[in-house]
Each structure stands twice: as C-alpha cells, then as structure tokens.
Design brief:
Strand order of the largest sheet: 4-3-2-5-1-6-8-7
Number of strands: 8
Shape: globular
Helix content: 25-40%
Number of helices: 5
CATH topology: Dihydrofolate Reductase, subunit A
Length: 188
C-alpha cells in the first residue's frame, strides 16, 4: 500500500507560495536566497528517487511540465519518468510523460492511488491539494523544509481546518544556511 507524502518549502510564517520564482509573487524565488547545502540537496534527491509517483495540483503540474522535460540528470530523469497524477477539473490533455488527470472525488482518487502504488506518492507544492489532503486526514507523512525567512504575506500551508490535527515529529535536522527539515506523521 502506498503512502501520501506532502513535501513543502515553507517560510517561518507558513508561506509556501512561489518558492521557485515562477508565479509572479512579490517575493517569488525566496527559497533560492538560502543554500540547502549538500545534505539538504541529498534529502530532496533521495526523496525523489524513492518516490513511486507524484500527486500534483494543476498549477504546480503546469509549472513542472514547462520546466522538467528539458532538463537532464538523475533528479530530472526520475521526475520525468515517474507516474504523475494531476488533480484538476480543467486540464484535459496533459502532455508531460506518464500523466493522468484525476477529476473525481479526491478521497476516492487517493484510495485508488494507494492501492495502485507500493511506495511514496509525493505531493510537491500544490497547496490546495495539500490542504485538502490534510483536512481529510489523508497525509501519511508531512515533510517541511523550513527556510529562515518571514515573508509576511502569501499563500500559507496551514489554514482553517474543521478539527485539530495532531502530529508527531519523526525527524528533524538543520542543513545549509539554517534551513530546517521537519518530518511529521499523524499522531494517532
């Protein structure tokens, strides 16, 4: 059975918007202002190489689909070849290799994906999808790469939920320029 793993670049004040600088956000590209160091880069590479599939929202998917097919290397090769599932009601003809559009109920789609895959189904960015997964208790692991910056505005990962969500810290370490990696799992 697969696991849903949400992985996010996040500021100290919880902002996840446009860490890479491609979305015209006022502070876009903020994650590139800090080095993750070799250990942080290895964490992201290992995460990608170990993933069985990706689950993405349409906006993140479109950004990735525009950037990754033309790149080369171990990370890019894995990103491009693995199965990708896009949660969208508007995307109809995805062009990136191995992409399937999921237009139905998110809970049912996640159950199907977890049955289909044995490994990690990784959600990169995709804040709306991540929030819906958190709200519906569908996240098996939450990986936060916390950058030492307060942005003061922007889309945040954690918003209103219908109930509290208890987590337990499974791993933590500091890498590069004071970037903290926090890995949480549900506490139940």
């Amino acid at each position: 059975m697969g696991r849903i793993v949400v992985t996010e670049f996040v500021s100290l004040d919880g902002v996840v918007e446009d860490p890479g600088g491609s979305e015209n956000f006022k502070y876009g590209g903020w994650s590139f202002e800090f080095s993750r160091g070799d250990e942080g880069d290895k964490f992201k590479l290992d995460e990608t190489l170990a993933a069985d599939a990706q689950l993405l929202g349409r906006v993140t998917y479109e950004g990735f689909a525009a950037a990754w097919p033309s790149r080369e290397g171990e990370f890019a090769d894995r990103f491009n070849s693995m199965p990708k599932y896009v949660v969208s009601r508007t995307l109809t003809h995805p062009e990136w290799t191995n992409t399937t559009v999921l237009g139905g109920d998110l809970t049912e789609s996640v159950a199907m994906l977890k049955e289909r895959h044995d490994g990690d189904i990784v959600v990169h960015g995709s804040v709306s999808v991540a929030q819906a997964l958190i709200e519906n208790n569908l996240v098996d692991e939450l990986r936060l790469m916390v950058f030492p910056v307060i942005l003061g505005q922007g889309k945040r990962l954690f918003g209103d939920t219908s109930d509290k969500k208890a987590l337990r810290l499974a791993e933590s370490k500091t890498v590069g320029d004071s970037v903290t990696i926090l890995v949480y799992r549900p506490a139940g």
